[in-house]
Amino acid sequence: MEMNATTVAIAAGGTGLLGCMGLVLTVIVILGVIVQCAIGVLLWPLVLICHIFGCGGGGGGGGGASYDQQQVQSAYQSDGKGALADGSVPADLLEAIKAAGRECTQIGPVVIASQIQAESRWDKGLVGPDGREGISQMPKDKFEEFGKDDDDNGKTSALDAEDSIRAQGRYLCSLEGEVNKLLADGSVVGGSLDLTLTAYDVGLDAVKAAKGVPKTARSQGYIAGIRSQFALYGGAIKPPDGEPYPTDSAYPSFSASPPAE
């Protein structure tokens, strides 16, 4: 199953191009993408995507997450360079995420946190089926290249969360530089951040071969899953009352604030 870039672009264009029914269908397509590809993206971003683009009127029971639709939509379409929301990441990882977000000006901490949620759901000891290890799930050869003993414990390991996160930042910045060279010479087309995230997931050679983001379910779903989390880690969405985050909740209900005038 494939979802082409047009599908994502239409969704990102807001409700002027699609009515609620079209948005529902878009969310269903994305759901199919993620279920079929099993790339580890949480289900709650799919609910969020529907709310981002105006499908339904919010609502649900009391104590749901609160958000401003325009701010959430803006976060989805953004470059993710904003500041982390207070308390949105585990306290013991905050400095590592901020440091990873300072490796270059193009990759901010919101991107780092959103990608971690998509890759591992904050599981520091995760070992993926493809052999990737740790909270950031970097390719093993890339961790060997970019990993350092950032937590000063005498060893460099992808299973050390700080080592993994700091290596993630360095690798993303390296990829972003390579992507911008390809964009400059016309070898690829697309947005720099989307191309960089895709290269992290499937490799830069796959991006070169496709001359952009591959038109595959995996790549389209990967980008949508990460972007849908910018609102949470950037503070445009507040978790339900009394619930800490990061969270694996599906966010089935929202207490919607009216869009800003």
Number of helices: 12
Order of helices and strands: HHHEHHHHHHHHHEE
SS-based class: mainly alpha
Record field, number of beta strands: 3
Largest beta-sheet characterization: 3 strands, mixed
- Sheet-strand content, in percent, reads under 5%
The percent of residues in helical segments reads: 40-55%
- What do we call the CATH topology? Lysozyme
* Shape annotation: globular
Q: Return Rg in Å.
A: 18 Å
Unreliable spans:
1-22, 24-44, 56-63, 248-261
* Average pLDDT taken over every residue: 78
Distance between the termini: 39 Å
- Spatial strand order of the main sheet: 2-1-3
The CATH top-level class label: Mainly Alpha
Pfam families: SLT
Biased composition (Low complexity): 249-261
Domain Transglycosylase SLT: 106-216
Protein name: Transglycosylase SLT domain-containing protein
Main attributes of the structure:
Lysozyme, 261 residues, disordered C terminus, 3-stranded mixed β-sheet, 3 strands, single chain, 12 helices, mainly alpha
Element layout with pairings:
Elements (H helix, E strand, L loop, with lengths): L4 H8 L7 H18 L6 H9 L12 E4 H9 L16 H7 L8 H12 L19 H7 L14 H24 L7 H11 L1 H7 L6 H11 L2 H5 L2 E2 L15 E4 L4
Parallel strand pairs: 1-3
Antiparallel strand pairs: 1-2
Model description:
The chain crosses the membrane at residues 21-47. Residues 237-261 are annotated as: Disordered. This protein has a single domain, classed as Lysozyme (Orthogonal Bundle). It contains 12 helices and 3 strands. Helix 2 packs antiparallel against helix 3 and helix 6 packs across helix 11 (217-227). By secondary structure, it is mainly α. Strands 2-1-3 form a 3-stranded mixed beta sheet. It starts with a helix and ends with a strand.
